[in-house]
Amino acid sequence: MWQKFSLYDFRVIAHYLGVLVLFLAVAQCVPFGVALVLGEWNPASRYLLGIGLALVVGSLLRMCLVTPGKLSPKQALAVTGFAWLVLALLAAIPMALSGHYGSYLDAVFEGMSSWTTTGASLAQDLDHMSVADNTWRFTMQCIGGQGVVVIALSLGLFGRAVDSSLYSSEGRSEHVIPNIMQTTRFIVRFSAAFIVLGTVILTGLCLFVGMEPLRAFFNGLWLAVASFNTGGMAAMSTGILYYHSGLIEVVVMVLILMGSINFTLHSEIWKGRLEHFFRDIEIRTLAIWLSVIVAAFVATLCTANIYDSLPVLLSRAVFTVIAAFSSTGFQTISVNQMTTVVSSGALLIIVFCMAVGGSAGSTTGGIKVLRVGILVKELVAYIKDLLAPASARQVVTYYHVGRRPLNSDLVRANLAVFMLYGVMFLISTIATVMYGYDAAPALFESVSMVSNIGMSSGIIQPGMPDMLKLLYIFDMWAGRLEFITLIALIVSIVASFRPRRRLRRAR
Q: Which GO biological process entries does UniProt record here (predicted)?
């Protein structure tokens, strides 16, 4: 029997959505403050309007139930699932009024891309966007990378509603520290430390390449936020290629890798337990996967004759693979090269790379590498069972911050996630092809959107059909929640409004 939502459930959900919308109002104070300091009066007025609307909407939602109780698991699913959509719709208002977006839908696409750390953009004339507007894009990406619910929990915004179900509903199943509040605060503080360190280093490098101090600071900050949170959003239309600096790319890769590692493993390393890191199934699977992908991608690039020297080819290939697997999406190979010079084989390799993301419990998107490791482990165990005597029984375990049993429920859950991603890849590709695009770019774009990567083969642009924009918005939303949360939410809502069948009395 499907669980249904009652009227009380909807009121509770509305209340806590209101809390998050009020948090959105506070978040918009960041670009508003930047606009005031820099004298950008038009953006300042737009963000003041955004703050006012968020305060009104958030207050009205909270009034749906003044004193709610503790969130149940199904209520937590709904709050998390709806939060990304509601925040994207409201956050788009100041951007839609900026003149850099063709329509409100384009701004909503940008908002969803920012919150889900996808990094794809429909902004027009990005090179002349105000500092305040860029700050808002990267503020959303920073909050989204950590997780909206994680940030809210770390600040104590949910009060008595703090519960593991709320934390887990955002695709996080592991507690760095037994206490939920302490876990979320560790994630936020650890991330803040690396973002600050990255900002200092990248600001220095931007000064070194000739930027003026204020511009260097903002570019360093934006790069650090986009890299550690594996968002990949860029402040310039040419993306990471704008900086023409190998040192900046190296620092960006280090930040990306740090953001791609499970926060639980970061905690273990911080405690001096290095054996957990090197024995972990995620790290070992990731090392093997990246080695194979880099070797295959380098081989295909060699046949394309894009680069004249081997060092440049290797650096571009390694950077592209790291940006793809981590769902960051920075591109050192231009869209024009992707569609005209790079072979279809190279595109296919990047598609495989994008489909499998970083660690579970990190800032990355896509199918987590832990799921791949578990399924490979189950495959090996299955083959051993076929070869072993009928009387033999084996206990299968895997190492992930300690030895853990590999049971059928875990395998089934991982297979379900793989299947859902695969189905969405297929649906999005078919829909894109129906609009007249070639199959290879359509597949590339679809995997990029569903896995929250943001890399593009040229399809994502302001002039693409509105229905594709809506489809890709849904892809980003569903991919960020790993589908399970969203599907459970949709099924519960449909079941809630389905009329009950009257039982016929037996004559």
A: metal ion transport
| Rounded to 5°, angle at Cα 290 from 220 and 428 | 80
Is 222 in contact with 198 (CB distance < 8 Å)? no
Same domain? For 79 and 184 the reply is no
Residue 503 has a pLDDT of 41
Q: Tokens 């024009």 label which residue?
A: 336
SS3 of residue 398 by DSSP: strand
Residues 213-263 pLDDT 10s: 999 999 999 999 999 988 888 888 888 989 988 899 999 999 999 988 888
How far apart CA 156 and CA 397 sit, in angstroms, is 37
Residue 60 has pLDDT above 90, yes or no: yes
135 and 213 both lie in a single domain? no
Radius of gyration, CA atoms only, the chain = 23
**Residue 4 counted as domain residue:** yes
The tally of domains found in the chain comes to: 2
List, in order, residues 6 or more apart from 299 with CB less than 8 Å away.
none
Separation CA 234–CA 329 (nearest Å)? 10
From 226, 259, 292, the end of a domain falls on 259
pLDDT at 341 over 80: no
List, for residues 291-310, the tens digit of each pLDDT value: 999 998 888 888 767 777 77
Closest CA to 115 of 89, 155, 145, 82: 145
Q: Same structural domain for residues 63 and 128?
A: yes
Side-chain half-sphere CA neighbours of 480 within 13 A? 32
Decide if 328 contacts 231 (C-beta within 8 A): yes
pLDDT of residue 496: 72
The whole domain housing 64 covers: 1-174
